[in-house]
Amino acid sequence: MDGNAHWECEKHKRSLSEADQTRVCDEHLCLPGLFAFAEPINSSNDWIEFINRDDEKTIWRHGRNDGAFSTRELMQLSQQQLRIGMVTTAKNLYQAEVTGVCHDDILLRYPVEDSEIVWHGRASQLGDVWKDTYCEDLSLLTPIAMSDNFECRVAEYGGHDTDRVVVFWPDIKEAEIRKGKE
């Protein structure tokens, strides 16, 4: 070693120049440990199959294989988008390729003027209010979508004839439950 850091491609058995490192190789496979939320369960020379740890149902592949996410696609997706499985299902169903991601702000679909504010108060009361209102343990539910912005965190939940949204403002420790109007 000459003291200068460098990257090597094991598949092609060569060092990578700075220019090589800025391009995504179509044959690149990420190190499985980079996906802390998923566990590798199968692999070949061209792909790695993962199962998401939190639900143990969502299985997805990374690499060069029908339905597998390329490194280029994984660079565009958030961890949450891979965890909820909706993108994986759509990719497999339509043999689609991820070419871009809409970073949807859920609150654009649930503006105050077009939503029913079910409750607003201290965030510490949210779980109890949810249980009293919907007879469900909020901590056991999986959101169908999540978004963060500089002011708040938002999680959208399905069910009960209409989707419901939790808005959490960490700076002021307040929360709100909204639902879409019929």
Give an overview in words.
The protein folds into 2 domains: about 90 residues, no CATH class; about 80 residues, no CATH class. A hairpin with a 3-residue loop joins strand 3 and strand 4. Helices cover about 20% and strands about 30% of the residues. The mean pLDDT is about 85. It is built from 5 helices and 10 strands, in the order ββαβββαααβαββββ. The longest helix is centred in the middle third of the chain and has 9 residues. It has about 180 residues and is an alpha+beta fold. The strands form 3 sheets. Strands 6-10-9-8-7 form a 5-stranded antiparallel β-sheet, covered by helices on one side. The protein has a 3-stranded antiparallel β-sheet with strand order 3-4-5, with no helix packed on it. It has a two-stranded antiparallel ribbon with strand order 1-2.
Describe how the helices and strands are arranged:
Elements: E1 7-9, E2 14-16, H1 18-22, E3 38-43, E4 47-52, E5 59-63, H2 71-74, H3 79-83, H4 86-94, E6 115-122, H5 126-134, E7 145-148, E8 153-157, E9 164-169, E10 174-180
Antiparallel strand pairs: 1-2, 3-4, 4-5, 6-10, 7-8, 8-9, 9-10
Characteristics:
five-stranded antiparallel sheet, 182 residues, 2 domains, three-stranded antiparallel sheet
Q: Fraction of residues in helices?
A: 10-25%
Looking at how many chains there are and whether they match, the oligomeric state comes to single chain
Note the total helix count.
5
User: Which class best fits the helix and strand makeup?
Assistant: alpha+beta
Average pLDDT over all residues: 86
What would the principal axes of the Cα set say about the shape? elongated
**Gyration radius, rounded:** 21 Å
Number of strands: 10
Strand content: 25-35%
Instruction: Tell me the distance between the termini.
Output: 67 Å
Largest sheet: 5 strands, antiparallel
